[in-house]
Amino acid sequence: QVQLVESGGGLVQAGGSTRLSCAASASGRTFSIVNMDWYRQAPGKEREFVATINWATGSTSYTDSVKDRFTISRDNAKNTVYLQMNKVKPEDTAIYYCHSIMRMTVDWSYWGQGTQVTVSS
To answer: Quick one: the chain helix, strand, coil %, rounded to 5?
Structure first.
């Protein structure tokens, strides 16, 4: 069974920082990670892309609204991706979802269960 398990988030004051983690696992199966991403969904809005990291190269990309505030990084040995969120704003309030393209016999898309981040003004 493939799992993406997120942790972190919670309530944070505007201007503060928090860090999200997402660990990938596939019980009893050999897999590799192609990329891992963070998306978010605010109340009443569609899910939107936040950041992505290529697992092999470490190259990253961000949506404009979080550039220079958020940093995505990875720990290859732990199959874990992080999202360091600095200078958070009330508009960053959302459920944050981890997503990954993972390769076993074929590439497949997986989603985590989501973790809530609430920024108070």
So the answer is: 5, 60, 30
Rounded CA separation 117/114 (Å): 10
Round to whole Å and give the CA distance between 23 and 104: 17
φ and ψ of 9, to 5 deg = 85, -145
Instruction: With CA atoms as reference, report the closest residue to 6 among 22, 25, 19.
Output: 22
pLDDT digits (tens, 9 = 90+) for 37-90: 999 999 999 999 999 999 999 999 999 999 999 999 999 999 999 999 999 999
Q: What is the C-alpha separation between 24 and 77, in angstroms, rounded? A: 11
Residue 28: pLDDT over 90: no
Q: Within a 10 A sphere around the Cβ of 106, how many other Cβ atoms?
A: 6
Residue 102 is encoded by which pair of tokens?
A: 């993972």
What's the residue count for the chain? 121
The residue behind tokens 């109340």 is 43
